[in-house]
Description:
The structure holds 2 protein chains of 2 kinds. By secondary structure, chain A is of the alpha/beta class. Chain A has one domain: Pyruvate-ferredoxin Oxidoreductase, domain 3 (3-Layer(aba) Sandwich). Chain A is built from 7 helices and 6 strands; from the N terminus they run βαβββαβαβαααα. In chain A, helix 1 packs across helix 6 and helix 4 packs antiparallel against helix 7. The longest helix of chain A has 20 residues. Chain A is globular and about 45 Å long. By secondary structure, chain B is of the alpha/beta class. Chain B folds into 2 domains: about 240 residues, Rossmann fold, CATH 3.40.50; about 130 residues, Rossmann fold. Chain B contains 12 helices and 15 strands. In chain B, helix 6 links the parallel strand 6 and strand 7. In chain B, helix 6 packs across helix 8 and helix 10 crosses helix 11. The longest helix of chain B is centred in the middle third of the chain and has 30 residues. Chain B is globular, with a radius of gyration of 21 Å. The mean pLDDT of chain B is about 95. The interface between A and B is medium-sized, with 25 and 26 residues.
Amino acid sequence: MSKNMTEIRWHGRGGQGAKTAALLLGEAAVASGKYVQAFPEYGPERMGAPVASYNRISENEIFIHSPITNPDIVLVLDETLVDTIDVTKGLDEQKGILIINTPFSKEEIQKKLTSWKGRLIVLDATKIALETIGKPIPNTPMMGALIAISDILTLENFIEDTKKKLEKKFKNKPGVIEGNINAIKKAYEEVKKQ
Amino acid sequence: MEKTIVARTGNEAMAEAMRQINPDVCAAYPITPATEIMQIFSSFVNDGLVKTNLITVESEHSAISACMGSAASGARTMTATSSQGLALMHEILYIASALRLPIVLAEVNRALSGPINIHCDHSDTMGERDAGWIQIYAENSQEAYDLLINAVRIAEHRDVSLPIMVSTDGFIISHEMERLEMYPDSEIQKFIGEYKPNYNLLNIDNPITVGSLVLTDYYLEHKRVQHEAMKNAMKVIPEIFAEFKKVFGRQYDFVENYKCDDADYILICLGSTAGTSKVAVEELRQEGIKAGLLKIRVFRPFPAEEIVKYISKAKAIAILDRSESLSTQAGPVATEVKAALYDAGKIIPMQSYVYGLGGREIYVDQIKDVYRKLKNTKISEQVKYLGVKE
Lengths: 194, 390
């Protein structure tokens, strides 16, 4: 019953949108006919403090209601977290994938991850967000990266769903919608190249 | 019927159900983790999506008191709360049920202080299990949504006329987004129908007294009548559930029998842990252990016969209580299941556990271990603590 399920952990700092990313991904996955869970970790939340959120995505109904301890994919919205918390905790070295938002190269980040040798993807999501949306919000491009390395959603489905959602929220700011879509596409293409 | 597939948290699901129910009156006070229910619902009120008269009050004691006045006046009345909020309602909860007021309460299970804690356990609702309210525990967002809609019909049924609380596990369900199938507003309205109160304080053609003093002369008879109303609920609940299935297609019962029929080892629990236990059952069955799960959905009235029916052939039973009665004996669920088995003349080895207090995580492996211990180790008459640091 737990087959075909992808478990995801998001790391960020309070205010960076780790919770929003998990919720947006959850909504998009439901819109494409999947079963999902999206939930944040509730602790002492405040701006700038390390926070985590989670997704389960499956073709079948999800029954488990335990925390996620062995994610298949980990996304880190803020590379400085790599120095302070164990972002690879429970992440399998053979099958697991780690995606980090950073301006540094893969080699430089790898040096910091001394004990973990699995598949690493780096992406300057903040730069992409600044170029496309005009604000340093890395979660939208990070979702583009996630879609590029997994089969949980197609790029078309995700863009369609994001468009629908943003059109409601930003009726009078079409630039925001276009910016977000471009951010997803750009991140997707960059990661596909890696 | 057309169903809309959406992604909603438990709190959002309950707020959506409240929107579709469109109660006449809602009085509430915010408390974590139930705050969102009223926060979302109040925006529905503000946006004109419901015609509800929303009363914001200064405490939960006032909230339930306002609900009582409203319900006694013949208005369909709802509220939402959690933990300390429910505890603050305590004295009024008993009055609401004695007055036979069908108030519907969306509850989010959270530990009672102290120490102060905001996470899930069932100590808040278990603390009100003798308050004369019908109690239903939801496993997930879908159940929370469906059961809150059912709750209106159950509470308002002429033979029942009792207040009802439907609860979800705090944060685990209340703040977790899941796939939710929603039904059209018009179908919900058709299903719940118009509320026709048995009595109405504002009906000047038939004046009544509400809340009068009853001493040694009739207090006992009052409780006897409440007892009968609960017994009536035992009959009415399956009828409403059957009607719900006919219209909306989803089957509910007092309990959920998950592979108990041929099970050697059965675990009993409430709420979201039942979902996690289903995964454990599947994995154990692949190993050749005949495991089964019995989820108690309706805890008040207590479906003793239903429970006995599903567990009486088991070799051993484990009961997981997410609250402590601190009697040095088992928690409330285990105690009542034991009593039910005694009445049925069955003696089955039973291991009682207390787990998950204050939101302590529960994992599939721990539950599998509970089953394995039922099979391989001697049952202890002492209650065990699951997942405790010792």
